[in-house]
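HCP-like protein
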Amino acid sequence: MAFYWFKKAAEKGHEGSMYDLALCYHNGEGTEKDLKMAFYLYQKAAEKGHKESMYDLAL
């Protein structure tokens, strides 16, 4: 359920939801694990100034 709402908000440009959605893809929570999609979403959120995404990209 959360995956659905994170995706909806991320599509509207909400960087926090992009990060949450990236975590879902990264960990396979609510969806299939997809590291490429997780990386893409971390990157998009980081471009919008989301600090946790920047940190996760640096790992």
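thats it. The chain has a mean pLDDT of 97. The radius of gyration is 10 Å. bye
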